[in-house]
Design goal:
The protein is of the alpha/beta class. 47% of the residues lie in helices and 7% in strands. A six-stranded mixed β-sheet has the order 5-4-1-2-3-6, with helices on both faces. The longest helix is centred in the middle third of the chain and has 22 residues. The structure holds flavin-adenine dinucleotide.
């Protein structure tokens, strides 16, 4: 008796994963869509606003959607683009009905609001006999499965990384290029929410510095591995030089897969990270930090809801100081490295990691302003705004999160400047007024502010109930 292959029509739904290479949902949808395949992207602008995405992040996404549309056409298919928000579940149901879709494939995102959105889409399409299939794609390893000996998620990086490396040695994580689309669906989109991304009034972002798309991401990786990787460990903390990859804007919108990056590393250095030299090993650790913050966000859902990892820090009495907050936002604090960093952010949409730690510590400790206000401002400003890494970075700096050091370790921004910008090249570039004969005066006394912060944290800890 001849075997009958099941004939299915599938849809790939793109979100924060705007590429064709090594894309698990796309590839599964193409493989399984034997009777038809198509792809969609839905611009959910209200949701973007709720997530505090600013012009830079949106411009990066819109540019990446243009690029993606061309690439899917090169593979033989078509990307339909829509605008929707509260009506997203009904849009998906209409598409399923109109195109007779059996399965929608998407990559899972981290955060409870993303989960809720997916559940409501799932329930809308189940009622018309379609299935939503979610794939683990954002990370090299499925971070949901990594657990401590007691079965709980890790909240400290070092043991997480140890387990992660062990899992890596046991796993096959090779990337896969985009397969050819053999059964493209040619039906037009049925709805008025369909838009042509060419008509988008491109947000006034800074994407000139970060040209969106897969090609740029791949060539950035190649250039960094060639020129930056070997001495990464020595250069990564010096904000005045190009000592890091600046790949974060492309990783944030999914223009490149982390498994592709790992493959490129392994092709150069061999499969076993234990045999790599310090530069590449330290860079791999940074990619593992990205995975760690996704693991923590996934394992501890309250982090999605503006809550700290350490409950007792909810008791810290933050200052309501709008003028100080504004001075920080605009780079007018009178503290050289902080002002330079905030002005680099305003001008480029990006900031060096060392300086991100310094400005975040300054806001949350020296100014004693709630970390959530800093987190939000970064989301609004960064071209690489990424909910998990940003929340993780802010909570780390504010001592409300995963930093293993106690709250009374407070970076001094002047000492940090002496260590990492000795010749004031970075400060001179972004905040030249600090190198003038009459530099601005700091809005706080660093020593007194440090003591004030430590007292505020100490008091919160003393008054906390033992379970927090
Ligand atoms: C307060 C604060 C907020 C941050 N907000 C974001 C954010 O919104 N988006 C974002 O991508 N990163 C964020 N980071 C992490 C880090 O600063 C950036 O990822 C890094 O500066 C990007 O530069 P790069 O691509 O040259 O990194 P490289 O040093 O070349 O590292 C390679 C990649 O590893 C990942 N990575 C590196 N460092 C970290 C880290 N500490 N945490 C998580 N991932 C890391 C990034 O994806 C990065 O592109 C934040 C850090 C802090 C302290």
């Amino acid at each position: 008796m001849p075997t009958q292959t099941t004939q299915r029509r599938t849809l790939a739904w793109f979100r924060d994963d705007l590429r064709t290479d090594d894309h698990r949902a796309l590839h599964a949808a193409i493989d399984r869509g034997t009777a038809g395949f198509t792809a969609i992207f839905v611009a959910t602008r209200d949701q973007w606003r709720r997530q505090h995405w600013g012009a830079n992040r949106i411009a990066m996404v819109e540019g990446a959607v243009h690029d993606l549309k061309r690439r899917i056409e090169d593979c033989g298919g078509h990307l339909h683009v829509f605008e929707a928000d509260a009506d997203l579940p009904s849009l998906m149901r209409t598409l399923v009905e109109h195109w007779s879709i059996d399965e929608i494939h998407a990559n899972r995102e981290f955060g409870i609001y993303e989960d809720e959105r997916d559940r409501s889409v799932e329930s809308a399409i189940t009622s018309v006999n379609a299935t939503l299939v979610l794939h683990e794609d954002q990370t090299i390893l499925p971070v949901r499965e990594i657990r401590s000996g007691s079965g709980t998620p890790y909240t400290v990086f070092t043991p997480f990384k140890k387990t992660w490396l062990k899992r890596l040695a046991e796993s096959s994580v090779d990337p896969r290029p985009c397969p050819r689309i053999l059964a493209p669906l040619t039906l037009p989109p049925p709805l008025e929410q369909a838009v042509d991304p060419e008509d988008w009034p491109l947000e006034a972002g800074v994407t000139g510095l970060f040209p969106p798309g897969e090609e740029t991401a791949r060539s950035r990786v190649a250039a960094f591995l060639e020129e930056g990787l070997t001495h990464y460990d020595q250069k990564r903390d010096l904000p005045a030089i190009d000592g890091t990859s600046t790949l974060s804007p492309w990783l944030a919108c999914g223009s490149i897969s982390p498994r592709r990056i790992l493959r490129d590393l392994r092709d150069r250095l061999g499969d076993d990270p234990a045999s790599w030299s310090t530069g590449p090993s330290v860079w791999l650790s940074e990619l593992v930090w990205r995975e760690f913050y996704r693991h923590v966000m996934d394992g501890i859902p309250r982090l999605s809801m503006d809550r700290p990892l350490h409950g007792w820090t909810d008791g810290v009495v933050w200052r309501d100081a709008p003028d100080d907050l504004e001075a920080w936002r605009t780079g007018r604090t009178g503290v050289a490295l902080v002002d330079a960093g905030m002005r680099q952010l305003a001008e480029t949409g990006w900031m060096h990691n060392r300086v991100r730690m310094v400005v975040a510590t300054f806001l949350t400790k020296h100014l004693l302003i709630d970390w959530r206000l800093g987190e939000r401002f970064f989301m609004e400003s960064l071209v690489d705004a990424d909910f998990c890494s940003n929340n993780g970075g802010w909570q780390w700096a504010a001592s409300t999160g995963t930093d293993a050091a106690p709250y009374f370790r407070v970076f001094n921004p002047d000492t940090q400047r002496d260590r990492f910008d000795q010749d004031s090249v970075y400060v001179g570039r972004w905040a030249p007024d600090h190198r003038s004969a009459l530099p601005p005066s700091p809005i706080v006394d660093l020593k007194a502010a440090r003591i004030r912060a430590i007292e505020a944290f100490k008091t919160a800890k003393q008054h906390a109930s033992p379970v927090t």
